[in-house]
Design goal:
The protein has 252 residues and is of the alpha/beta class. The protein is built from nine helices and seven strands. It has a seven-stranded parallel sheet with strand order 3-2-1-4-5-6-7, sandwiched between helices. It holds the Pfam family adh_short. This is SDR family NAD(P)-dependent oxidoreductase. Belongs to the short-chain dehydrogenases/reductases (SDR) family.
């Protein structure tokens, strides 16, 4: 039975992805900070033999614990899903919170990717969850968008480095989803136009399909998001940024 570890897996996209993979008879290890949510998540998964690990990925010692786990136990797939962000104009937000966003979205992801790939075998896969904002700009969420640009570039480079070893690396880039991420970031899904939103189930379904297909280094989720990025090619940069600024909760 193939084993998959997912970070940020107690709710939202991470949990929905776990449910789909469990239904396909994968064995899941879920990682998050909240033990009660993790226990509840595990009980809702199809099949047996699933595990959870309580870890705060803002802490290097917790990241290192997962790295030790990768040395002791083989996982066929790592999905780096944990992430955070803040909505608001750059200097209106606390700097330490934005630095924390940078560490979790980039530093922790790099550390976990390194630990996983050091022990990866032929046929394994690493999935780094980015965002459609990796391929646009986002006034009112400048640091968050910047971290996701890093994730996209980093993942594509790793895809090339490891493809000859038959280790698949994918940067998966969802658009705005109806999840609790937006509440944690200081807004709500109601701040976005309905037409740009996807459900967590839709995002998870595309993620699982892309993981099983193993065709592309970069996957943009949702036809609406792909259409928007295509349309931006016909706008000058200032106008494209203006479009994103108008729909950003951080600019309202």
């Amino acid at each position: 039975m193939k084993k998959i570890l997912i970070t940020g897996a107690s709710s939202g996209i991470g949990l929905e992805t776990a449910k789909l993979l469990a239904a396909k008879n994968y064995q899941l290890t879920l990682v998050a900070r909240n033990e009660e949510k993790l226990k509840e998540a595990i009980t809702g998964l199809h099949g047996k033999g699933h595990h959870y690990l309580v870890a705060d990925l803002n802490k290097k010692e917790d990241i290192e614990r997962i790295g030790v786990l990768f040395e002791r136990e083989h996982f066929d797939v790592l999905i780096n899903n944990a992430g955070t962000g803040l909505y608001g104009k750059f200097t209106d937000l606390p700097l330490d919170g934005q630095i924390g966003t940078m560490f979790l979205n980039m530093g922790a992801l790099v550390m976990l990717s390194y630990a996983y790939l050091k022990n990866a075998r032929k046929g394994d896969a690493l999935v780094n969850i980015g965002s459609i904002l990796a391929h646009s700009s986002f006034p009112g969420g400048a640091v968050y968008a910047g971290t996701k640009s890093f994730v996209a570039n980093f993942s594509e480079s790793l895809w090339y480095e490891y493809k000859e070893r038959d280790i698949y690396v994918m940067g998966f880039n969802p658009g705005a989803a109806k999840s609790d991420f937006h509440q944690h970031a200081g807004s709500s899904t109601g701040s976005f136009p309905e037409f740009v939103l996807s459900t967590t189930e839709q995002v998870a379904s595309e993620l699982v399909n892309a993981l099983e297909a193993r065709e592309k280094p970069r996957v943009v989720q949702g036809w609406k998001n792909r259409f928007m990025l295509f349309g931006f090619k016909f706008l000058n940069r200032a106008k494209a940024i203006g479009v994103m600024g108008k729909i950003s909760p951080g600019m309202q």
